[in-house]
Here is the input.
Amino acid sequence: MTNFTFPKGFLWGGAIAANQAEGGYLEGGKGLTTVDLMPTGKKRWAIATGSLESFSPLEGEFYPSHEAIDFYHRYKEDIALFAEMGFKALRLSISWARIFPKGDEEQPNEAGLQFYDDVFDECLKYGIQPVVTLVHFDVPVHLVETYGSWRNRKLVSFFENYATTIFKRYKDKVKYWMTFNEINMLLHLPFIGAGLVFKEGENRLQIQYQAAHHQLLASALAVKACHEIIPDAKIGCMLAGGATYPYTCHPDDIFKAMEKDRESFFFIDVQSRGEYPGYAKRFFKDNHLNIEMEAGDEELLKTGTVDYIGFSYYGSRATSDDPEILKQISSGNVFASVENPYLEKSEWGWPIDAKGFRITCNQLYDRYQKPLFVVENGLGAVDEVTPEGEIHDDYRIAYLRKHVAAMGEAIQDGVEILGYTSWGPIDIVSASTGEMKKRYGYIYVDKDNDGRGKMERSRKKSFYWYKEVIASNGEKL
Ligand code: BG6
Here is the structure.
């Protein structure tokens, strides 16, 4: 038992993304998206970072998003299991290419719209609030091939058309929204984050920050449209969060860590405060970047600020100003980090740091003074099925227990948190590696890295644990 309770109406639940769960990648009129071009194996990283161009699936490669866990056909069964755990919220994303298969059409695809109507109805049937991300790592491929994706300002109006179509259609069903998933991912995995592919010799940084400007404008337009169309809705941004620690107390390390955090905060500073921060202007100047802006852009950013700060937290990061220390950068994580000797790591090398979660919550709330929404957190781990068909995932329970407790402490510190949707409540495809083996779920899906398995769903030990957490509103951890 804990010595505190979570706020009444706290939104406990889980989070998935269209491209990692749905499958049905060309069904119901859906167009091809960037993630549909990301195979498992060696080529994945080069494609994800925008270094290797690939505009159609290649012979002999395995593409995990094409079938994923077949949520497209099995959503009823899956949502029933979420309801059994007592979910109050389900975070999911809409695939842009289900609604606008090419991305630049004027009229939407009715079959795609109907699919999400059915999914939301199924959630609402159980009293589960859908929490919807407009774009979670999937840009229609036609927009990449024809316009160069988010490097082109035209994407802003295509996105605006998509967003307003969605708000009008689901205004009575969805009250929690987010614009771009982990918007700062654009700097780390530019193809995943923004559909960017680079040519030899191009100035990547220039293209990335220009694309960022376009996404920030698109986000502001979506916020404004959402407020107009659904006045009682809340719409947030979404940051790949995690505080950066200085490796030592040397002032150079402290400054370096601050700069590293600002690299990510830049996006949220604009989305939440409505203007480019001074440090960004200096960064652009120092790096000879020239961000093209049009009259009215600043005004738009000012008026399209978010209602809450959505973020993911998997672990903290560390950095140093000392080139020798920087050699100890750990592999495995998208966010390069110096190894922190005080922390354990997951099987994929991601640092485990529950205290860092409390720190991150406090840091974000101090900075923005807006409610937070923890929309991703969890442990990617290998699960073994016993001969009796059971999965004893005590390691996952241990990770989550400590993190939920840290979040409870943050709430007692005065941080306002709307809810907690842990990542991958049902096993889904890993975004970074494309593996099925990297599992986050309370629900096991019988499918392996090569696509073999019956895809049957079964409850892990953590399923029963989380059910109790929700039923006791966080008192029984
Ligand atoms: C976040 C993404 O980066 O982390 C998710 O928003 C992703 O899409 C999650 O799945 C966990 O990362 P991974 O690589 O373990 O799936």
